[in-house]
Amino acid sequence: MSGRTPVVDVHAHVFPRVSRDEARMLAGAGEPWLREHGDGTGMMMSGDEEYRPVRAELWDADARLAAMDRGGVDVQVVSSTPLMFGYAAEPERAADWCELVNERILDFCAQAPERLVPLCQVPLQDVETACAMVTKAAAAGHRGVHIGNHVGPRYLDDAAVVEFLTHCADEGVPVLVHPWDMLGGDRMNGRYMLPWLVGMAAETQLSILSLMLSGAFERLPRTLRLCFCHGGGSFAYLLGRADNAWRNRDIVRRDSPRPPSAYTDRFYVDSAVFDPRALRLLVDVMGADRVMLGTDFPFPLGETEPGAVIRACDGLTDDECAALLGGNARAFFALDAPDGAVPASPEPSEENENW
């Protein structure tokens, strides 16, 4: 890594080897398991249903490390595939399932601990269990927690989820938020992958605005390290619309003392927007210190040449490019601290303090 910026990808999934029998602990709640074909390919399964064809990079550490070398990625922050969340299961089964998945992720990352950084998952449908589990997982070696952007109808501003996020802040555990179970599926019917192309962006924007307009960011500790995948969805492009609504309609600003743009220093986003022009806007909105490389590895809709969009983004200085490619992620996940100790909280920006 001498002579160049170490590249850290914060948005990279794993589907650890889970058998059909093991998946039955989630009876009636998806039952995700991996069917390997013995030729470097496989199928993500949901019970008896085929979900998505996949390749060995998703579950085999050697294949992944080879792909990272080809793409010039030094470190990946590894999170479960969202199909594995288990949020539809009753809490006791979901807790057992998350324990299994977390152990498998640790085992996977232990094969190259200097390059593969594990994130745990938790049964977010039961906040007490989720809090206990994230503390246990952090002690076991997980460097953060990966959660879905909602649990059924409850989004991140729900009181129980806010309690969980507060616990993560108190414990110094970074939180990576991924969209899943996308809204509007009944209208898109899976055509042209529209739930992924439209639904994911909408889910993420909905989550961010829910935290802003509900006043949840006012209640959450500033020490919370929170990152949204997929570039924050459609949030950056529509931030002006949200600010305009806050200024002109009391129903929009009822629970939030500040406009949405005042809260962009409370979270991070990844860079998975796939267009240098979109990334330029994202950096302008968030600041170069709050965007981190994310590729959605190893799925086909991910960035196939890691960091290419960052390197092609006009107007980034060398220092800003280095921050997006790896520096911001090293600070966010405290990768230079052996125990993942919480870094000093950034001071509020002058712009956001004087909105």
From TrEMBL:
UniProt keyword Transmembrane helix, yes or no: no
Quaternary organization: Monomer.
Annotated organism of origin: Actinomadura rubrobrunea
Species classification: Bacteria, Bacillati, Actinomycetota, Actinomycetes, Streptosporangiales
One protein family per Pfam: Amidohydro_2
Record pathway: Secondary metabolite metabolism; quinolate metabolism
EC number(s) reported in the record: 4.1.1.45
SUPFAM superfamilies attached to this UniProt entry: Metallo-dependent hydrolases
Record flagged with keyword Zinc: yes
Protein name per its UniProtKB record: 2-amino-3-carboxymuconate-6-semialdehyde decarboxylase
UniProt-listed GO biological process terms: secondary metabolic process
All residue ranges annotated as the Amidohydrolase-related domain in the record: 8-334
Alphabetical keyword list: Decarboxylase, Lyase, Metal-binding, Zinc
Broadest EC class assigned to this enzyme: lyase
Molecular function GO labels: aminocarboxymuconate-semialdehyde decarboxylase activity; hydrolase activity; metal ion binding
Family: Belongs to the metallo-dependent hydrolases superfamily. ACMSD family.
UniProt GO cellular component terms: cytosol
